[in-house]
Amino acid sequence: MGSSKAMKMDDFNAESKESRYAYVPSPVQERAFMIVRAHGQKQPTPVGDYTVLDPAEDPKLSEKKVMNLVSLLNGRKRLMDLGHETKTRVLYKIVSERDEENKAKVLFYNLGETGVSVENALFRIEADEEVWDG
């Protein structure tokens, strides 16, 4: 029963005390979250956003997905298992071009039982954030 155990929703805050990245609901857009970076005792700085594109997705599920994404950004291996809730496979595509704000973009898709992938969410993060080096 070591660290391979899946994370539960209650575990997220306990493991996030000294995190580099966190999230907050977007102050300007519904069904979106702002990704922020901690700087010691200073106010966190917005470095990205996660926007839910699927209007049918349960907002609680969307937040759990963001929690998993932030966990990955913070180098964690334990994630919440959401397969039983989504009943889909999550696919993603890193969009090569940067947007007008110089943010890298990742488009998430849900692949359902019918074999058709549907756009689910768009994740954007500052191009100079060092999140791609594992």
Structure in words:
The protein has 134 residues and is α+β, with helices and mostly antiparallel strands. It is 19% helix and 37% strand. It has one domain (9-126). The chain has helices at residues 9-15, 59-73, 83-86, and strands spanning 21-25, 32-39, 42-52, 89-95, 103-111, 117-126. The chain has a 6-stranded antiparallel sheet, with helices on one face. The longest helix is centred in the middle third of the chain and has 15 residues, at 59-73. It starts with 8 loop residues before the first helix and ends in an 8-residue tail after the last strand. The mean pLDDT is 83.
List the main descriptive attributes of the protein structure presented here.
3 helices, six-stranded antiparallel sheet, alpha+beta
